Structure formats: structure tokens, C-alpha cells
Amino acid sequence: METTPSDNSQFSNVSIWKDSFWVVSIGIIYFLSVQFSLLFVVKPEHIAAFWPPNGIYAGALLISRKGLWKYIIALIFLANGLGNLIGGNSWMISIGFAVANTVEGGLIVFILQRWNGHPFTLQKLRALFSLIGAVVISTAIGASLGATNLSLAYGWGLFSNVAKVWFIADVLGSCMMIALILSWKEGISSWKPLNHKRVIEGISLMILAVGITVATFSLTQQDAIRPYNYLIFPVLIWAALRFEVKGVSFVSMVTAFIMAWFTIHGQGPFITDGTNVQDDMIWLQLYLGILLLSSLTLAITVIERKDKEDLLQQQTLVLDTTFQTLPFGVIVCDEKGQFHIFNPAAEKILGVGATSTSPDEWANTYGIFYPDTKTIYPVEELPLMRAIRGEKTDKIELFIRNPNLCQGTFVNAVGAPMKTPDGTITGGVVVFDNITEDKQTEEQVQQLNQQLKEQILELDRSNKELDDFAYIVSHDLKEPLRGIRMQSRFLMEDYEDRLDENGKRKLTRLQTLSQKMTDLLDALLYYSRVGRTELSLQETDLNEVITEIQDRFHEVSQENQVEFRIPQLLPHIICDSIRVSELFHNLISNAVKYNDKAKKWIEIGWQNQEAGPPVFSVRDNGIGIREEQIDSIFRIFKRLHEQDQFGGGTGVGLTFVEKIIQRHGGKIWVESTFGEGTTFYFTLQKGETI
Fold first, then answer.
1. CA pair distance 252, 232, nearest whole angstrom
2. Which range has the worst mean pLDDT, 125-134, 154-163, 657-666?
3. Of 142, 236, 392, 407, which shows the fewest CB atoms inside 10 Å?
4. Rounded to two decimals, what is the model's pTM?
């Protein structure tokens, strides 16, 4: 869906209003928490049991997007400064406190981001320890700044007391509120419909927690910590087990306020003689710290355990699904031979599922035989039995035949023992696959190989017969042709004065035809030899090959004004140098012969390829080839012109070229424009450049 500019502007305005509302809400909550916390300060010492505002500030930063951080930090600084001014402090002390409190909360978030990344969550014990460490470090710095600020105004005798009270109160308040904010934020993000039983349980938990706390701290005659002071611990354990971090942090916060209220009013187990309230508050703070740390540790341990159980359950489900869908059989049993896993593929391949049969009866129950399909397989040698004994087996071929598998099935089985980390054998695993089709295919391949061997032998016999035939043709038929040619010449010499011009012309024609027939037979024999002779591969400098061919065509090139062009040096390659020389000789010879231009040129070049062998080319400006004739130029004895045109020829030169290239594993193709010229491209797959 497309949006118009006005739509985008509307969305932007909505986002700005939401962000503004969020930042202002944080400021209001922070201000109210400051005012509420001041109600729990002991006078005249002004000692706070705990101070949640900085925890609210740090928690708000952690759950807000980073783009709003600068506005939240500025608002907290402003709220601290104005709050202290309104409270009667000087502007210097107000600014100092604002700096200390702002730095403290911001530094907590900075350290957590550096140690754990973004976003920060309380799901691991490592995260809890990171939170405690970040709060301790940041609060120590903030308390030092605040105590220094106050000491500069009223004397350094206050530093130790102020720093100590500030540090302990803020550590408790920050840990408690950050845990509460993060846990409830995570709960909202994964919100589920309320469960009435859980709601009733939560209300009951809070009533019990409040009741125990009030009953414990409402007593006035306490001169030592009594055992019933720890009745709150079972409640916190309940909260940790059932409601995790959000339950623990909420119960801790509510009970902490109750404990602080009674303590500042001279009641509770931590009030001694009433003369040193500061020491009494320190005992309360230590007590709250123990409650909070132990209960949060338990809650996060419960979360980690649940996560591990969920992961284990998920892995078990994946493993079970995998076993159920695998195309090959998997069987797992304990050391006594009791099956624990017997997947559907195993039952399908074996024809019988898991049974309670004793391992001694496995061979008979499932019908397990040697690959000869007749001899029953010894039970003690079965892959699964060997696995139970601690042996590992690899690709044992078995044959399965039972009432459910009348035709029988061939399987390949692999076995391995199951061991504990200390090496104790707890069972065995066997994995097997149906190879019946593979066996049948193997037999067919063997039959085809045998047929192929017979065909190769037959082909060898045929080739030998062809070689014999070529030899006969080249020798036995060439002899009569030689006689015809000789007799024709004798007639011309002995009866020259008796023969008229017509007779002389016929005898000359007879000599020409017999020589032509001899040339054709020589070409046929050479073609046969090219296809049979093994290649003699060696390093060859193509520049030397072309230079030698140029020397052979020196007189011809001068008479016909032929220019040789070689744009770049040719490479060294691995090839049969003699055959490749014949290849270039035939192409160059054709380029010279089939050219009717006054100035002829022949260009010999090559191109290297990133993938594949180099491509060589022989280009000329000759007569060219008609498009419809290109497909037939490599046919043996095929000529594209009249027999007496361009000096005649046998029509086998390009056939030789193609055969040589094929023997080198390459290919040849042609591009030509009739009347303008031709380019032959070819590769030599076996010829690697050096």
C-alpha cells in the first residue's frame, strides 16, 4: 500500500507524540519515586534504607530506544536539579547532586551495554552478575561524586557517612527496580491471556508476603535477629519458582517498603537500643541485599533450567521427527537388547517392527541371512549385537527374508556402540539402508560391462579388418594404378608420332586420373593412421611450428603476394607437435590456395580463456564459404568447387584437421563471409598452455 506525503506526516506526528508522552511519563514517575522514597528516610540522620529512583531511571533507559536516551538523561538531570533547589539546597549543591545521580544511572546502562550488548535481559546468571557489577561500580562513582559535593559545602567529615549511606541505598534500589522493570517489560512483550488460577495464586502470594513482613517487623521488643525473621524466604522461593524474576522483584519491592517503614518508626528485628539508627538501617540493608540476591539468583536459575528443558524438549522433538522421517532404518537398543528407537523406515525395510524378542532370536525373528540368501546370519555377528559389545562395524551387507518380505531385501548396515563420557557402554545403534535396487542395478551394470567388453573386442576386430583393408587398398590397388600410369607414359613415348592430338590428350588424362586415384588412396590410408596412432604429447613452441610452415610457403607466398600476420606471440602448449604442425599446414595451405585477391593475407592468433583451453584462429581474406556449405566442409572427399578450380585437390585436408583436433580433445568451428574471407577457430583440450 502506498502512502501520500500527508500520511507520512501524520505517522511522523503520531510517533513524536508517543515518544514525547513516554519521555514525560518517565520524568513524572521518576519525580514521584523521589517523593515517595523521601517518606522512608530516617530523620534527623536522613538515612535511606534504599533509593529506587536511580534504578527507575536506568531501567527506563534499558527499555527505551536509543534515540530517546538523550532526552531522558536531560529530563532526569533537570528533575534532580530543580528538586534539590525546591528542597532548599543551594544551586551548587543541587547541580552537584543532579550530576551525581544522572551519571550514576547512565553509567549503569553504559556498562551493561558494553558487557552484554543491546538489548539487556535478565535471563542468565551471567546477566545478573553483570547487573550487580555495573550497579556497584556506577553507584560507587555516583556516591563519591555526591559525597564530595556535600563535603565541599559542609566539611569533609560528612564524606564517609554520606558515601556509605548513598552507596548501599542506591545499590539496593537500582538492582531491585532494574530487575522489576526488565522482567515486567519482558512479560508484557510475551503477554498471554490471564490464567485465573495464576491470578489467584499471585494474590495469595502477595497477601502471605505482606502478612509475614508486617507480623515480623511490627514487633518492638527485638534485641537480636530471631529465626522467624527468615519466614519471608519460603515466600520468595515460591515467587521465584512460580513467577520467576518479575514475582521476586515485585515481592521484594513491596516487602522492602514495609520493612523500611517499620524500621524508621523504631520497630522490627533490626532496632537495637534506638540510639544508633544508622547502624540499625545498615543491618536492614544487608538483610534486604541477602533477600534480593538469593531470590533473584534462584529465579534466574529456574529460568535457565526451564530454557534448558525447553531446548532439550525441542531437540528431542526434532530428533524424534528426524528419526520418523529418515529414509533409512535406525534402531537403538540398550545393553540388554531392549529397543528404544525403531523408526518407521526400519520397520518398512525389515518387514517387522520392534519386538520384545531376546537378542538370541533376532536372526530368526527378522529372517537375517548372509548375502548368499541361504545361510542364516550368526546372532553374535549381527551389527547391533557387536555394537552392544562395544564394536564398531562398517557397511555389512545382509539379506532379509521373512513372511512379510517373501522376495527378500538386501541391506547395508552400520553399527556403533553408545557410550557414556567415562566409556561405559549403554547400548548400541544400527543404521541400515535398502540396497536391493542398487544390487539389481549393479548386476545390470555388470551385464552391460560384459556386453561392452564384447563389443569392444568386436570393434577391435573390425578395426583390425579395416586396417588390413586400408593396407590392401594402399598397396594392392596402388600397384595396378602405377602400372596404368607407366603404360600410359610408355605409349606416349613409343607412339608419339602415330597418335593424334585427341589420343595424346586421352593418354594424358589417363595418367592424371590414375595419379588422382593414388592420391586418394594415400589420403585414405593417412586418415586411418591418424585415427589409430597414439599421440606423442610434448611441450611445443607454436611460434617455431608457424615459422617452419612459413619457410615451406616462402616461394609460394612471394609469388602470390601472401602476407602472414601474427598479432602476438603464440604460447607453448603440450601437444603432438607433428600432428599440430599438419593441422596448421592444412589450414594455411587452404588459405593460400582458395584466395583470389591481388594482395592476400593470413592471420594466425589466439585468445586465452579464464575457464577452458585457449582458442586458436586462422583467418584469411580469401573466397569465403557460402553459409549453406559450412556444415559439409569437413566431410571426407568433399569439394566445394569444380575439380580443376584452384589447383584441384582431394577434399580431405579439412577432414584431417578435424580428426587431429578431435584426437586432442578439442573442437573446431568456422565463421565465413562469402567473397570476403574465412576464420577457422579451434581448441586443443589436451594442449595446456605453459
1. 10
2. 154-163
3. 407
4. 0.55
Contact 572, 690 (CB under 8 A): yes
Look at the block and give the residue holding cell 559525597. 147
Cβ-proximal residues to 259 (8 Å cutoff; 6+ apart), any chain: 49, 213, 217, 268, 284, 287, 288
Mean pLDDT, to the nearest integer, of 348-377?
Answer: 92
Cis amide leading into 44 (omega within 30): yes
CA–CA dist 643, 647 (Å, integer): 8
Q: What is the CATH number of the domain that holds 506?
A: 1.10.287
Is 25 within a domain? yes
> What are the pLDDT digits (tens) for 101-129?
999 999 999 999 999 888 888 888 999 99
Among 669, 667, 679, smallest CA distance to 612 is for 667
Q: Which helix (H) or strand (E) holds 408?
A: strand 405-419
522: pLDDT strictly greater than 90: no
Confidence of residue 7 (pLDDT cuts 50, 70, 90): very low
The dihedral through the CA atoms of 139, 141, 142, 143 has a sign that is positive
The reply to whether 359 and 295 lie within a common domain is no
Q: 45 in a domain, yes or no?
A: yes
CA torsion, points 546, 551, 557, 559, in degrees to nearest 10? Answer: -170
**Boundary (domain end) residue, out of 434, 461, 490:** 434
Answer yes or no: is 48 within a domain: yes
